Amino acid sequence: MISSLSRKARVVIAFACVYFFWGSTYGVIRIAGLHLAPPLIGAIRSLIATALIVALCMARGTSLRVPWRAAWRLALIGVLIMTVNNVLLIWAETMVATGYASLVVAMIPIMVALLETSLPGGETLNLRGWLGTLLGALGMLALLWPALHRGANSGANSRSLLGFALLVAAALAFSIGSVASRRFDLPVDTFVSTAWQIGAAGLLNLIIAIGGGCFQTAQWTTSGVLSILYLAVFGTVVGMTAYTYLIQNVPVTEVSTYAFVNPVIAVLIGVALFHERLASSEVLGMVLVIAAVTTVILSRSKNALITDAEAPA
Q1: If we measure between CA atoms, which residue out of 114, 94, 93 comes closest to residue 102?
Q2: Is there a contact between 281 and 243 (Cβ–Cβ < 8 Å)?
Q3: Among candidates 52, 46, 14, 18, which has minimal Cα distance to 32?
Q4: Which residue among 155, 200, 283, 305 sits deepest, i.e. has the most Cβ atoms within 10 Å of its Cβ?
């Protein structure tokens, strides 16, 4: 049915999937985190998504075999993106609002740009890029201001600061994985590389979950299980398939708009489902972060900043 649609219709559907499904993952992660431990959520989500992608590759007749050198590199990228980043993000969302979390994670394109600037042979930021980085720093300060202003003595403020630190670490891990993915320049089919990355992370997440006793503390509620299924099917498989289609058919600057649309979707869902409210300084932070990400992406549009690995939660 999809194949019979016009190219314009397929592009619109793909954008709708990337915007909504990736933006909605923050709210769904919060629901899952109320019932299950972060490593267990990451394990089940990753392994289900891997099974679906492997089935897709088999249906396409695509071999999953890759050279050993590529295999360990793909595994490393997967661990950074789907273990370190994903587990820390889930943990952080037990402490901070979903919209807040999405805004901190939205800084990934800026972190990628800074990493590329600092590495030998990397693309340096131009004046517009540095302006975007400055706006991003101001946005982060605005997001932190309520907790800093009240001090870290109360338990709530301490959790807020810890949640912010976890989100920054998660975004940094994702950024390192994204830069590594670009520099490794792996000649592997997109779906095959995705299966290896998510599969490796899923196995490590499962080992951590078993070692940490996460199965013993798990609350197997309907909402928790449905949340993980949603993350695996729509957040990972459908979202990644739509993103891959867009990368192949639409200019990268247009595809990159997800980086500043997803936080808006996440904030709106947080308000609608969880009655979250951003403080005035946090609203200012949201505006600054979105402006910053937009500025940095546009400053690097000629060199395609966003890559296949750079996907959100």
Answers
A1: 93
A2: no
A3: 46
A4: 305
Q: pLDDT for 253-286, tens place per residue?
A: 677 788 888 998 999 899 898 888 878 888 898 8
- How high is the pLDDT of residue 186? 77
Measure the N-to-C terminal CA separation of the chain; round to a whole number of Å: 29
Sole residue written with tokens 């991003």: 136
pTM: 0.86
Burial (CB count within 10 angstroms: exposed 0-12, middle 13-18, buried 19+), residue 62: middle
Domain boundaries, the chain: 2-303
- Measure the CA–CA gap between 313 and 310, rounded to whole angstroms: 10
Tell me which residue has tokens 């740009």: 113
With bands split at pLDDT 50, 70 and 90, how would you rate the model's confidence at 102? Answer: very high
CA-to-CA distance for 241 and 239, rounded, in angstroms? 6
Q: Are 154 and 79 in contact (CB under 8 A)?
A: no
